[in-house]
Design brief:
Layout: H1 11-40, H2 44-61, H3 71-94, H4 101-105, H5 115-119, H6 121-133, H7 137-147, H8 152-159, H9 166-187
Helix pairs in contact: 1-2, 1-3, 2-3, 3-7, 3-8, 7-9
Length: 189
């Protein structure tokens, strides 16, 4: 079905095609969507609700899928749009302050985790996830897409940033995250 894109002739066919595409997308990209949800939401209960929001957005979106982009690009675009909506909704609810890359770089040392956390791989992943979660939604979208193995042209389609700027933005985000991560690891020494 993945390679077979055609216009449905009736509402029933359209719904069947949408259901089929939705099942296919979840089967192929389900684990990536789980990782995306983890990058956007730390709380497990809220993350489960957020995953339902992503699945609902995908299911609804397939009524408009016309095959002009790959299924992968479509799924990531819809999921990232759902994530951006989720982040903004959470931001309004919690009044949590987002930070730019420059602000993240200048966060106070007291907000850093202790060095013993960095020694444990699971804790280190948790720390880097927390740093990623503090990024502006657009920067977070770029780095999460990159970590999922998406190429610059696909990230460009998803984010609206020019494909030529994507590698530079990824490089800068990785440098800032790496410095902040290492500062936290050295903080306890």
């Amino acid at each position: 079905m993945l390679g077979e894109r055609r216009k449905p002739h009736s509402l029933h066919e359209s719904q069947e095609l949408g259901e089929c595409l939705n099942r296919e997308a979840i089967a192929i990209f389900g684990h990536a969507l789980d990782r995306l949800a983890c990058a956007y939401e730390a709380d497990p209960d809220t993350r489960r609700d957020f995953m339902q929001d992503i699945h609902l957005a995908l299911w609804r979106s397939f009524a408009n899928f016309d095959g002009r982009c790959s299924l992968r690009t479509w799924v990531y675009r819809v999921a990232h749009n759902a994530a951006a909506s989720h982040v903004m909704r959470q931001h309004r609810m919690k009044k949590r302050k987002f930070v730019t890359l420059d602000e993240l770089e200048n966060l106070l040392d007291r907000e850093q985790e202790t060095a013993d956390i960095a020694a444990d791989r699971g804790k280190a992943l948790e720390r880097i996830s927390l740093l990623i979660q503090r990024l502006d939604p657009l920067d977070r979208q770029v780095i999460v897409s990159h970590l999922e193995g998406l190429q610059a042209d696909v990230i460009s389609e998803i984010t609206g940033i020019s494909a030529g700027n994507i590698p530079m933005k990824i490089h800068r985000i990785k440098n800032v995250l790496g410095r902040r991560f290492n500062q936290g690891a050295n903080h306890g020494k």
